[in-house]
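Possible regression after last week's pipeline update?

I re-ran a chain I had predicted before the update to compare outputs. Posting the input and the new output here so someone can diff against the archived version. Not blocking, just want to make sure nothing changed silently.
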Amino acid sequence: MPRPRFLDPTQRGLSQLGQEILPVLYRHRLLTAGQLTQLLRPTATSTRYIRRQLEVLHGRGLADASVRRTSRAGELLWYTTALGCEVVESGGELAPRAYRMTQDAAASQLQEHTLAVNDMGLAFVQHARRLGDECGPLDWDPEVAHRLRDGDSRLGDEAFLVPDSVLRYIHTTTGDGGQQQRMLLTFFCEIDRATMSIARLAAKLHAYARYARYIPQPALGRGRPKAGGYRREAWRARYPSFPRILLVLDGASDAQLAKRTHDLRALAAADARLQPAASDLNAGVTTLEQLCHHGPFAPIVTPVLGDGETTDVLLRPSDAAASAA
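New output (post-update):
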């Protein structure tokens, strides 16, 4: 007998909070009860209520958990089951994703990387609340593929750019005349937990440089225009301006992360292939600790290209103005 499909979460007897938790788990793959509490109930003094709702979701087969590998206390990391994914997708509020978390993936060595990506997003959400800006629990999307090369999609990394996450943030400023201006800031975010070589980080910058200038060409064939039919970069169909690139470092001491920042800047400065892209890339590097503690609009970001004076995530005020929402 086929398993019934539940098209509406309320048919499963879920509370309002339970219905909020499910799409957040679906979007962000793996979350702790603490992260969910900060995202969805930031005024709560404990994780008890969130954990109770997670147990309800688990009892209904919509969510499951894996033990965090680095936790001596057996902290649980939560994710949506296949049935939970079906419920979210049938609701039509989130775009379906091909990737689904499995028990094996949830228990893998990627745990800490996934949690760090979500800590980065959480930092933006928390500081948006403090500043009166807009960035919510669903405003970052992990591993969104962007084609940067024509031809066979089986080329993998050679054909696609896949940031760790794409984050959207609406920042409100007050002009000289007292009028408020809203700026849509989009970020390609990369998390490095000191597990990636500096050369690989620099290679990611090359991928972003290629995407900034990539103009797709129509396939040759009967009834199709010949090459040269397109004149606009691919990113313009998805973003109002080319997203800022934010490299967030974690997983080592402050001194080690500072050295990695210095080495990345030195390698980028010596790379003749990156210099022509300097005007296209608004790229900066910071640490997860600084981002969480000070927020994105403190002078915590070091430009990867150009001078090394720290600034905030806007990096270039003129570019930010071009992203007015």
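Follow-up from reviewer: compared with the archived run. The radius of gyration is 21 Å. Marking as no regression found.
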